[in-house]
Amino acid sequence: MLEVIRIALAQYDREKGLRRKVFGDHPAIKAIRRLSLEDHNNPFKILQCFLQNPPKEGHASDAVYQRFLRETFKLGSWPAILTLRYANLLSQENFDVVMRHANREDATGRANPDAVARALRDLNAAHLLTPENREVVLGHADPEVVASALYVLKSAYLLTPENREVVVGHANPRAVARALRDLNAAHLLTPENREAVARHTDPEAVAQALHELNAAQILTQENFDAVKNHAVPDAVARALRDLSAAHLLTPENREIAVRAITPNCNTGALAVIVPSVLRGLNDARLLTQENREAVA
């Protein structure tokens, strides 16, 4: 039996009123005593005894309940239990997931079990509450966001093991899910492109960049490598598109565009300015390597 319950029941036996001594224990206490030896060590089973047979405030049975709550549920875990209960999701499996999270610290040093409970609630609403997805939200630093990402994948009919793994493994799972959705809509969801968005800090920008290149019919390996490895891939893609339209998309000019566009500048403007300057130099027959370097 859980030590907290053993001690609390002993105190209950000492303090219960005459009515309970004559007519028997409170229904919650009776239910606890009837539990199997295994269930006596299961906080969920004990909690169910109290929830199904609520003690009256101030009574000896309530003292057992309150002691059980104080010593069993860490700060933040009780609101999570209530979230599950109000959503009709207070099962052994969901209880265990929330309590596992509550009993450990996340990367910031703070556990947030209610976020896990809300994520389970959202998964259930989307008909995605499976054992595998429970483990997914438990293992992620932002459970609600990863639940939202799984819903994005499901809505786009893209909830495959490969896509789930990519989404779960990223710091911004919802952005990856949207990027995969956008790639799929553009008929560009290949293993190579999936890996490109998964490895980038801005997955949606990579997806947009690949769409730009494909639309301009310049999605070559060289251009693919140029955007996937860049901090601002969508801006580079627009620059390459404009260079191609001006018949100036050479290896040298590609390199200048990649070097000139940096995240610390107005990338939108540079995506337009760099091709325009190179085009002007070319029209003036001044597009030398020295002048290219000056642009960069």
Strand content: under 5%
Helical percent range? 55-70%
- What is the subunit arrangement here? single chain
Distance between the termini: 72 Å
Mean pLDDT: 86
| Global structural class | mainly alpha
What is the succession of H and E elements? HHHHHHHHHHHHHHHHHHH
Largest sheet: none
- Total beta-strand segments: 0
**CA gyration radius, whole angstroms:** 30 Å
Report the total helices.
Answer: 19
Low-confidence stretches: none
Shape, per Cα inertia axes: rod-shaped
Brief synopsis:
With 296 residues, the protein is mainly alpha-helical. The chain is 69% helix and 0% strand. It has helices spanning 3-15, 18-23, 27-34, 43-52, 60-72, 77-86, 92-102, 113-125, 131-139, 143-155, 161-168, 173-185, 191-199, 203-215, 221-228, 233-245, 251-260, 267-283, 289-295.
